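so my prof wants the structure for this chain in the tokens format not the other one, which i didnt know existed until like an hour ago. anyway here's the sequence
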Amino acid sequence: MPKVREQYRAKIRGAIKRRKKEVYTPVEPDMQLGFVHNNVDCIGCRACEVACKDKNGLAAGPRFRRVQYIEGGTYPDVYAYKVNVSCNHCSKPACLPACPTGAIFKRKKDGIVDIDSTLCIGCRRCEATCPYGAPQYDPEDGIVKKCNMCVDEIDAGRKPYCVMGCMMRVLDIGNIDQLRSGDYQTKAVAPHEKTVRAVKNFADPELTDPSIVFVPHSKGKVE
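here's what i got, hopefully its the right format
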């Protein structure tokens, strides 16, 4: 066991040494995958949350995908809608350059941001820098984890568990440029609906250029 621990420490020291020599250059992916969520038609069943926790074997507490309930107004003008978020696999991820070991990386072929758990030392710098609360510390394993868009499913030609678990089909993934322009065919967006980059209570997209769009509720639109 001591020998295994020393090998692990040597691997981490080597990763930190390499990381200090590198100048961070944002990855320009061949194609950027992103999420779309319909805030209007989502019923808040949390099937996506359950599917995600089941796929990733998460204990009580950590939630890579979170359904947020937004309510407000005064009678008779009251409203309620849901905003569904996870890691946004940003074009300019704040977490990536903050990692001292280079454990966080962005895939060239599809822009997915992932974590190499063998290099994570649990310093939680990524957790502090992400404006969307995506990286989450796991005290049992002593490392940070997050949504990786189910890369094994993506590589097998399938969609993430959260998307497949959505009974209302209001959550989907696709080429983010096409999702923004309205050219991507998806059940999450009706022909008369338009997507936006941000809704109320969502961090400014100019910070990291998140790969997500929403069909906003009328009360959730950003003026």
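also thought this was worth mentioning. The CA atoms of residues 14 and 101 lie 9 Å apart.
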